[in-house]
Each structure stands twice: as C-alpha cells, then as structure tokens.
Amino acid sequence: MLCDLVWPMRARTAVAIAASLLVCCRRERPSLTAAVALLPSELPVYRAVVADFERASGLRVVVVPQQYADIRRALAAEAVAGSGTLDLVELDVYALASAAPHVCPFEPAEVKSELDALSADAVRAGTIDGLRFLPHRLGWQAVVYDHAVLGRPPDDWPELLAVARAHPGKVAFKGSLYEGLTCDVLPFVWAAGGSGDVLDDAGALAAFRFFAELAPYLHPESATFREPTVAEAMARGEIVLHLNWPFVMSLYASQGLSPEPVRSAPLPRGPRGRATVLGGGYLGIPCNAPHRAAALRLVHHLLAHDVQTELARRLGWFSPRGDVAVADGGEALAGFAAMRSEVRPRPARPDYAALSRRWQEAFRAVVFEHRNPDAVLHAAASDAARDR
What pTM value is reported for the model? Predict the structure, then answer.
C-alpha cells in the first residue's frame, strides 16, 4: 500500500460503467456499487469474497476498481450533485479528513462488534466529527534491503549512517515533493521523540540533524523518487536500502528477487525507539448512498473475522482486526510484521495537508539544498504559526 498506488482507471469512465451496471442490475435484483482501490491481481480474490456476500444476502455487488484519487473525485462530484450511485467507498487514510463531509457517520451501536475487534488506533484515524470511516486494510512501511550485499539490516541510526557511508549513493529516500516523503520523514521524527505536529520540537530537530548527516551518501536521484521508481531502482541493483510498503515485496517476488536477495526489516531504532506511519484503506458510506442499509451489511461482511483472514492469507493484506495475524510471508514480510506494534497515525488536524507539505519542503531544503536543519525547521515553524 503506497502513498498511494493502485490500478489506474479514469474516474468518469468508472462511475459511468458503475452507473450503467446499476441500472441493468436493478431490473434483476437489488444491487450495490462499491468503489475499491484494487490492483489487477487483487480483483479476482476480492470479487470471490464479495460473491459469498451476494449468495448470503441475495444482493448483487458491482465492484468498481479505481485509484484512490478517482474515488475521492467521484465521491465529491456525487455530493455536489446531491445524488449518486456509490453505496460504499474505500479511501486512503490520508484523504479521510477532506472526504469526511461527504460520508455519513456510523452509529457506534450498529458496528459494535467491529469496534470491539478493530485496532483502537486505526479506528481513531477514521473518527472525524463522528465515526465516519472504518479501517478495511492497513499498511505501514518497513526497511527494504539487499540481504546479499548488507548481510543484516541496520538496527539503529548509527548503523544506518554506517551503511550509507560504506555504500555511498546506495541508500535512498522517496524525496519527491509529495505525501510519500512525509511517510519517510515522520518515522524518524517520532523515533527521536517528536510529536509530528510541531515542526521544531526536540525530536524533529534530532531527526533533521540526522538527515543532514545522511545527505552526502544518498542516491543522487532521491529528489525524484516515489514508491514505484525507488522500488525499480532497487530491482536494478542501484540501491541497497530504502523504505517502502508491503506491495513491493510481491513485486520483487514476481521478479525472482525476494526473499533473496531482497528482504524487509524493522525501521532503524532512534533515540526514543521505532515508529512507522499508518497507511491503508478505509470504508465509508456516502451520504447520498442509494442503499445505506445494504451497504452497512456489506461492511459487516468485509470486516468479519473469516473474510479478513481470507484477505490476509490470499492477498497478504494487513488486517485492522487484532485477532487476525499478519500473514506469514517469511523473510520477505518479516520486517513489516515486526513493525505492527510501532504503527502511528499521521497528525489528525484540519490543516494536515499544509503541515505535511512543510515537512516535505524542510527535508528537501536540508538534504538536497544542504541548508542548516535547525534554521530550516525554526523558519518552517514560524511560517506555520503565522498562517494558522
């Protein structure tokens, strides 16, 4: 799960297809339309899981695979129109705050069994002026490294710096100006005791001083890397270590590169421990959903223990349920499994997008422009205070 990469489809085309299918299905039996961010390889398994619901309920479900961004746009367009065809949507955790006005809250009593089983931290991330979203699947980052070259991954910051010095140009960050960079930055801030909310607290300063130490040894294209491109660079042997999401391990396995030589490992320990950023997809029922009651039944099905276990087993998804273990992926997923207890949500605040942009700009100023980390962060904090 990246910040955030899924199967591309044009939003208008997908919604038009869903709408036409809905019209046809209404002639036969009641139908639901669910827009979910699925890769091509995930779609058959997901449809099989949904087919179980169809048989039990007598309802038909039209699963429309789209990019998260396209789902957000379709949801917003239907909200403006005052009506629509979408009964259930999956949205990335990063977009929940902006999409919240278009999604109606769940009543805690109607999802009590789910709330008892779901991770409390994951539920909090979906609680925005009420319980508007429920976690469908979770994701978080781990270290992805070349075992053949490194032997063992770095356990802490000094060891990471030693790896970078021993292999100059072979360690990379996702340094493009986008949310993926924030997902690389915040774990270091948290691991140094920073809040993630304050741009120049002691933890942030410690993390950015460390980034300044790493800067001379990073891959020269770090400033342009995103999830797919940094993964491709490792596949070509250009880098030996980066941070990424679980999807890359399937990619490497398909190329014969995992579990050897590419493996995963926990993020390096900072002065105050380890941390990683919560990612994943959340389910919400649009305020204009034509079939809210039926959509709620589908939510119950998708979050049930047996279904979550099946998705974890067959797709390698990380379940938000505490009673569903991370699927055994051996050495390939060992690092992700080890980080499960260290996952943290991004700061929950209305101006998060602006805060995230400031973290990105500060990182790029320190790492690529070689500016003083303390001065950069103090200036960013002053600008943020002025703009609030």
Answer: 0.83
